[in-house]
Amino acid sequence: MSSSSLSLPSASMKPLEKEENNGAVEAKTNEETLVCKICQTVVILKNMTTEWLNEERELPLPRQKKGIDHTQTEPVRGYFGVKDIFAFENVGFTRSSEGKRFLVCGECEQGPVGYVDPETEMNYVTPERLDVLQASQDGKN
Fold first, then answer.
1. Which domains does the chain have, with CATH numbers?
2. Taking the CB of residue 114, how many other CB atoms lie within 10 A of it?
3. Among its keywords, does the record have Protein transport (predicted)?
4. Is residue 103 within 8 Å of 91, Cβ to Cβ?
5. What would the pLDDT profile of 19-63 be if each residue is shown by its tens digit?
6. Which of 2, 28, 136, 138 has a 20 to 30 Å separation from 65 between CA atoms?
7. Rounded to an integer, what distance in angstroms lies between the CA atom of residue 132 and that of residue 135?
8. Is the CA virtual torsion 33, 37, 42, 48 positive or negative?
9. Between the CA atoms of 121, 101, 57 and 9, what dihedral angle is there, to the nearest 10 degrees?
10. Three-class SS of residue 132?
11. Which among 87, 100, 110, 93 is positioned nearest to 41, based on CA atoms?
């Protein structure tokens, strides 16, 4: 894991400070390019999201323990919303045994890094399961 895996991207910290918006959707874009924590593949470029969902959802753990007969989950708060799947650079979709669709890294399939809302078909990606692309990595700065 990279050393930045324990901290959330700064763009996602701003909405989390607004406790009165608990569970609210607000118009917001990601201010940084988000990459996979494992392989550093770009998942979504900066300014490609359209909203911020300040809500806690259960996501399956990236690594499941053997010998358990159910999917282990953890609560994850805060998701950037993306309506058009073509806004992503590298993302894959999976299905769980419960019929839910989750987002994973399109290169190494690590995740889930988000989920698909079955009612709205909106794609939600969490910066908690991703890293920020560092200026030295993108070759442009």
1. 27-63+70-134 (2.170.150.10)
2. 29
3. yes
4. yes
5. 345 667 899 999 999 999 999 999 999 999 999 999 999 999 999
6. 2
7. 9
8. negative
9. -80
10. strand
11. 110
